[in-house]
Automatic annotation (TrEMBL), chains A, D:
Keywords: Oxidoreductase, Pyruvate, Thiamine pyrophosphate. SUPFAM superfamilies: Thiamin diphosphate-binding fold (THDP-binding) (SSF52518). The pyruvate dehydrogenase complex catalyzes the overall conversion of pyruvate to acetyl-CoA and CO(2). It contains multiple copies of three enzymatic components: pyruvate dehydrogenase (E1), dihydrolipoamide acetyltransferase (E2) and lipoamide dehydrogenase (E3). Its cofactor is thiamine diphosphate. Coiled coil: none annotated. Its EC number is 1.2.4.1. Residues 23-316 form the Dehydrogenase E1 component domain. It catalyses: N(6)-[(R)-lipoyl]-L-lysyl-[protein] + pyruvate + H(+) = N(6)-[(R)-S(8)-acetyldihydrolipoyl]-L-lysyl-[protein] + CO2. The lineage of its organism: Bacteria, Pseudomonadati, Pseudomonadota, Alphaproteobacteria, Rhodospirillales. CDD domains: TPP_E1_PDC_ADC_BCADC. This is Pyruvate dehydrogenase E1 component alpha subunit.
From TrEMBL, chains B, C:
Residues 7-184 form the Transketolase-like pyrimidine-binding domain. Its EC number is 1.2.4.1. It comes from Nitrospirillum iridis. This is Pyruvate dehydrogenase E1 component beta subunit. Signal peptide: none annotated. GO terms for molecular function: pyruvate dehydrogenase (acetyl-transferring) activity. It is an enzyme of class 1 (oxidoreductase). It comes from the Bacteria. The keyword Oxidoreductase applies. Keywords: Oxidoreductase, Pyruvate, Thiamine pyrophosphate.
């Protein structure tokens, strides 16, 4: 594991910090609205909330350009929102409507929006990684400076695709960054029950690749790790594995009973809610005023509300959509 | 009078595994989240087993389907009878080498020296908004692989009795648990005998037309059968129960009698198991058929998310009624 | 007069990839040992390409089939047209998630926003003593998966023309290269046009019976056809060339004419693509058939090693002759 | 990577050293006879010679009991012979005859002989490992002291099954030993082209497992590593990864042209032929006399010759063997 000494770490400037916070709020308000809509029966979908993990993609995405790409997973709406996916088509998609990113055909587990760089969302554990390699290969072939991000969970670090992907990325020196969002659990399985190493970042050693463990709930730490990895990738120096420690507030799938952990454990983890913590820090550090943040939050709440209205009002797709997009040519 | 217990499909599978574990110390269980510390399976198929039979016989695994099936195969050739859970059928794709190249073939390739008495159970099925990667029915793939048996029950009793037979079988068996079949409850006799593999069940006797179905489509076909009855059509409804090897005798006897067949499954119509059944019937009963054999299945498309598309993707009772009417001419 | 080159199947595929790479800088190649430093592919399918087009466009990979197909998918949605080699068809089992859950579905699941113009080519086929894990024909699995096309040529020209079409196609295509078809040479026109996907070839016209075959079984069927001709039987032999989607029009038109069909493939008979074809014919041409449709394929067994067993495993010309005689009554 | 200091290493006694050499000679004579038979057209099979790799399974197997199990690969006849598989049924099998271990149905890539602990031979890269885990689990459930060995190549360390297997073995503390025979090439691909780490043993770090790199052509080194791993496994302390450096003399498949390496490289590697080297050392160290070794070699040559005669004289299997062993019950 390589670890840059803390003193030398790149620090996010005030604007970047505000930008990280803005992305976090968009994620959080959007997540809350989705949970509410499910409870009210306005959305019918399995929902893998990422509440609590807002910092990770936000601090990654401020280092990215629109044409940088991401591959993410069922628990990935935070990654997409952080990357800049517009909320209206997102809502239409999770409501299964024709104005959805995927015309309602993909749904929440397969949201895709190439315009904002969201190339693949997979429901198969581990499968974001092999595809991100290919996007990175394409970036390299194009002679571009683009990077590709693969998001995945701690449990996914135990599946074969992880291994094959990190090895290939390393021998091909691909501009790809593997961001493991370690939220301590894989469905109901505690980290150490399924994972044989104390830090997933150590696995990078086996691929001759830099690997770092960071506090994924700390925007400054997370920013630094992402900044370095992105720089390295753009400079043609190859991939990085980032293990970002975090916690998911709503269990595996929204509606879980969380029986598999203790109440104390959960409460302790939730005390480190990154949103209020970062908000307070921004104000304390003089980076933003209470008033400016409140305005931002109000505007975002309105944006989310508008998106929800839009999504739920969008028409359902016609049945012949079943014959479209199977191939480029419509099925007869 | 034997005692019964009210069970749904999940509870029936759970009870069958528990009975097998109690009777035979060689029966062991593995899969993601299967132990009670992890909740006894995401849908509860293995709930209570680790508490009752111990943590060595019921083991939660990492998310590593190749390692799961590999460990099960190794334990099987080492004398055990593993019951492995692959959460969803789409995840068998990451373990296909272990299932197809190894579990199914080791007995043959070793000239009978090793055997793999392994049971895999896995959930699938559209209708619950899980979209493109969580709902495929891939039984035709396994039926097209020599050396593995496939069961796809539709009732709690059948889940129970077929699970017992799968565990007891000396060869690898795959049990498909369809989401739509797991909601209904049934009184299942506590001492229910194992249901033999490869034997279909005649759900409804009739003389005008044979409907062959399995898994969730038996429920759909029952609705169609009721509607047809109201129209005065006498349907013989067969629940295959075992997809591979399927019960040729029962199906052929029925179609010999009715002269007409409609085959229904949730999987893609194209190259589904319905094709094998139709091809067999036409070959065996040429000249005895009064109408072409019809097949119903999913359209050539991935499973869609949006509700109306998902409904259109699934065969509905009306589709079956229409197909039956068409063969009745 | 157009110039021709004498090619076998491997050289034809090689020439087609080379032509596509020369015409379109987006065509790229990856797989185990594919670069010239590694010998240009174990059987030489990609020989010379890295030397001619550079090491960035032709990349040898680790033994990591998931990573190979994953990288190909990513490059494809990133605007490239990857040609990926999976050495042997049995090794697709370790990449089935990537092929089935991703390559085949991404266009649909993204509502048409991303597409995967990927070509996979893979070798297989019994008859060369490679036994249980190196010779399976799994085309029925892929045919039963929405979103991927499957070609299985039998002649050098078809390898050439179909490979061009696969690379050019906007969707994923799988080309099956059968060991037994790769030995024969043919003069192939240098400017041969792409052969459209989904179009069968009538190898031999005739009026008494239709034989439908593809891949190596076309060679076997040709021998049978010769023998039958000598007996005065007029055979219409169809080489499907594309297995999915298959050419219903050509097959149905032929059987409408002959009234009799025999379908042959090397894959297991049970649940093979022959089942879909037979089921379709009986449904479409009910009443026009003079005899039941016969299907020939491998017995329900893994591929055996021992020579006499391997020969018995494979459909032989005599088996086809016997099947044709049986439908001629 | 853990590495026992050389001074503390367990040393093979004289008898054990002679036993290792005996196994090596059996492997080598048998390999030579197979290659000759292929050249003469008496055997028809793809042959993956392990000439040059004799030390590895020989030094492992002297630490094993008959009921310890192995899972090996297409290049695995040396592993089987070292484990004690009798040569007569081996020859009958590779000749496709009814007296073969597998009645001629499996052939050289699927030789199996549970009696001598040879449980699985696979033709799929990486697939020996997941199954060895299961054999180790069975050993543990039995309350036995048995260990399971998974043999595989350097190239196989890049496939997903490697990763899943080592992780599972570690979290389950299975009595399994992963023996990587690193012969520098995977088919025609040089180690560093496909493998992102300089030493495969380093990957053990990612699984919280001991990993050692040893000279796989040195019987004493190899013995020590195997001894420690077997002890650890029998003591319930879990798995070990051993990377044994070696070289295959006859390329990937017998008949290869070896174009993908230089003549000098090959010649240099072949100078370290473990057989003459170990033979000379045994004599020099006073562990065996020239005469005793010559007698052993003669006896083994006769055994190989007898096995070949037996195998080639055995009848071919009847066609209805196609219907047997697909399931326990014959196919109708
Ligand atoms: C190959 C595969 N196996 C199993 C599953 C079922 N599954 C869905 S999410 C999940 C847990 C993943 O845990 P982790 O990688 O830590 O991500 P998290 O959900 O915690 O974000 C599992 C086992 C799956 N989707 N794919
Ligand atoms: C999954 C899979 N992919 C590809 C192959 C083809 N193949 C057979 S051997 C081999 C090379 C293996 O190299 P290594 O693991 O180093 O073992 P070695 O042959 O050198 O002993 C390859 C690629 C295979 N058998 N299985
Ligand atoms: Mg997690
Ligand atoms: Mg090697």
């Amino acid at each position: 594991m390589q670890q840059t000494p803390v003193s030398n770490r790149p620090l996010p400037g005030p604007e970047v910090q505000r930008d990280i916070y803005r992305r976090m709020v968009r994620i959080e308000r959007n997540d809350e609205a989705i949970r509410r809509a499910i409870k009210l029966g306005r959305l019918q979908m399995p929902y893998y909330s990422a509440r609590g993990q807002e910092v990770i993609p936000s601090a990654v995405s401020v280092n990215l350009n629109q044409d940088d790409t991401i591959c993410t997973i069922y628990r990935g709406i935070h990654d997409m929102v952080a990357k800049g996916m517009p909320l209206r088509p997102l809502w239409a998609e999770i409501a299964g409507r024709i104005d959805g990113t995927c015309k309602g055909k993909g749904g929440p587990m397969h949201l895709t929006h190439p315009e904002s760089g969201v190339m693949v969302t997979t429901g198969i554990v581990g499968s974001s990684m092999p595809i991100a390699n290919g996007l990175a290969w394409a970036a390299k072939l194009d002679g571009s400076q683009r990077v590709a991000i693969a998001y995945f969970g701690d449990g996914a670090s135990n599946i074969g695709a992880f291994h094959e992907s990190l090895n290939l990325a390393s021998v091909w020196k691909l501009p790809v960054i593997f961001v493991c969002q370690n939220n301590r659990f894989a469905e109901h399985t505690r980290y150490e029950v399924g994972t044989s190493v104390d830090r997933i970042a150590k696995r990078a050693i086996g691929y001759g690749m830099p690997g770092v463990t960071v506090d994924g709930n700390d925007p400054v730490d997370m920013y630094a790790a992402a900044f370095e990895a992105v720089e390295r990738a753009r400079a043609g120096e190859g991939p990085t594995l980032i293990e970002a420690l975090t916690f998911r507030f709503f269990g595996h799938v929204f509606g879980d009973d969380d029986k598999y952990m203790t109440k104390e454990e959960k409460a302790a983890a939730m005390e480190r809610d990154p949103l209020p913590l970062f908000r307070a820090r921004l104000i304390a550090d003089g980076i933003a005023t209470e008033g400016a943040l409140a305005d931002m939050e109000t505007a975002i709440a309105a944006e989310v509300d508008d998106a929800m209205q839009f999504g739920l009002a969008s028409p359902l797709p016609p049945i012949d959509e079943l014959r479209r997009d199977v191939f480029a040519t419509e099925i007869a | 009078m034997t005692a019964t217990t009210k069970l749904n499909g999940i509870a029936a599978v759970n009870a069958a595994i528990a009975r097998a574990m109690a009777q035979d110390p060689k029966v062991i269980v593995l899969g993601e989240d299967v132990a009670d510390r992890e909740g006894g399976g995401v849908v509860g198929t293995t709930r209570g087993l680790s508490t009752r039979f111990g943590d060595e016989r019921v083991k939660s695994t990492p998310i590593s389907e190749q390692a799961i099936i590999g460990a099960a195969i190794g334990a099987a050739i080492g004398g055990y009878k593993p019951v492995a859970e692959i959460m969803l059928m789409n995840f068998t794709t990451v373990a296909m080498d272990m299932i197809f190249n190894h579990a199914a073939k080791l007995r043959f390739m070793s000239g009978g020296q090793t055997s793999v008495p392994l049971t895999i159970h896995t959930l699938t099925g559209a209708g619950v908004s899980t979209a493109g990667q969580h709902a495929d029915h891939l039984e035709a793939w396994f039926a097209h692989a020599a050396g593995i048996k496939v069961v796809a029950p539709s009732t709690p009793s059948d889940y129970f009795g077929l699970m017992l037979s799968c565990i007891d079988d000396p060869d690898p068996c795959l049990m498909i648990m369809s989401a739509m079949t797991l909601r209904t409850f049934e009184e299942v006799p506590n001492d229910l005998a194992p249901i033999p593999l490869g034997k279909a069940r005649i759900v409804e006797e009739g003389g005008d037309v044979t409907i062959v179905a399995y898994s969730a489509m038996v429920l759909t076909a029952r609705k169609a059968t009721e509607a047809l009855k109201a129209e005065g059509v006498s349907v013989e409804l067969i629940d295959l129960r075992t997809v591979a090897p399927w019960d040729r005798e029962t199906v052929l006897a029925s179609v010999r009698k009715t002269g007409r067949a409609v085959i229904v499954h949730e999987a893609l119509r194209n190259h589904g198991v319905g094709a094998e059944i139709a091809a067999t019937i036409q070959e065996e009963l040429f000249g005895a058929l009064k109408a072409p054999i019809r097949r119903l299945g999913a359209p050539y498309s991935p499973v869609p998310f949006s509700k109306p598309l998902e409904a259109a993707y699934l065969v509905q009772p009306d589709d079956i009624v229409a197909a039956v009417r068409s063969v009745l001419g």
